[in-house]
Amino acid sequence: MDTELDGPNIGWLGIFRLGLVQAALGAIVILTTSTLNRVMVVELALPASLPGALVGWHYAVQLSRPRWGYGSDVGGRRAPWIIGGMVTLAIGAIGAAASTALMATETVAGILCAVLAFFVIGVGVGAAGTNLLALLATHTKPARKAAAAAITWIMMIVGFIITAGVAGAMLEPFSLGRLVQVTTIVSLVAVAVAALAVWGVEGRHAGLRTGSDAAKGAFIATFKEVWSEAQARRFTIFVFVSMLAYSAQDLILEPFAGLIYGYTPGESTSLAGIQNMGVLLGMIVTAVLGTVVGKSRARFMRQWTIFGCFASAIALAALCAAAIIGPTWPLQPTVFGLGLANGAFAVAAIGSMMTLASAGAEGREGTRMGLWGAAQAIAFGIGGFLGASALDVTRAVFAETAPAFAAVFAVEGVLFIVAAGCAAWVGKSSGDDTHIPALPSAELIAAE
Fold it and tell me: What domains sit in the chain, N to C, each tagged with a CATH number?
């Protein structure tokens, strides 16, 4: 069994190590996009559109993702970008928590500080996330790419779950000072884990890939070339629509639990952990099923992506019922089911992404990952802001909170149905016989 990198390729241990980076990144992100927005809306009684705008702003900053990926394409090294991005992300997260605490006494000053903090968060996520995926796509054998995608995303969800549980417990009894302390501790631990995980993975082979002449072309020309690729363009559209659907409830689920079900900050943070447990199980089930399908794994991945989108729409219909019926509805199983469906389509889509990143002209992996990351960022920014803003508008129209939440959940369900159609469109562009490998069996891992 290999350990780090065998030749220019990352071995299984190397893949798990990079998965720790993804887990560390997710640990910080879940606090900034879930817990802080709930505190602003519930504890500070600020409009839901405020955290929606802040999170949307940090996604807008991530439009620079193609440039971060292009930079590492040219230099041929991803690790410095990953470590630098994680440090930047941690600084932004701590600043965001401190800004939220400041809003309690100096609202305007706190908001201005938060704008700067979320800018820093966007830079950090873009630099670290894009180049982590580019490193995996570049140095992972074709037969392992889907496995690498599944493993790293599963570990990210594990990071979500652990952070939600631990941070949720640490936040009780809640205070704004405790919020800053918990965010600081989580951020520092995450940076340490990421730095240790990535250290040396790429260093052994520093001279193997220093950036191709093609990658050293002008950024705009390179970006246009990638966009001209039919598969890359269609997959970008799918990523945008599916992430728009996913993100519409991202900023309102915890406020929903607090306003309709009376959850405390710690309880609503733990609810996010339950959702991510569902995502984790959905990913694992999809990966396992992928090992037993026939030769046409691309067809399986496409069909499973479509199934996951439709299942997500059904789960959102159940959340509509939860909003209307109220506290007697089983909220936790419903949120778990939504996560299960999300995980099913996500791991199939990520497997396709890892494979398509190396399709087309050589030396463009970082740029392609940056393009898809930018599409995701745009979708998350628009979806999060529109979801939060729609909540404010519908609350004013209905003069009640429950119908407002139900309306937003219903629109998100429709978007998932549209995303299913986009997934079918991507499949037609690549063909059913494209090889998208599944997770390896335990016997294969042991043999190596």
Answer: 7-201+216-447 (1.20.1250.20)
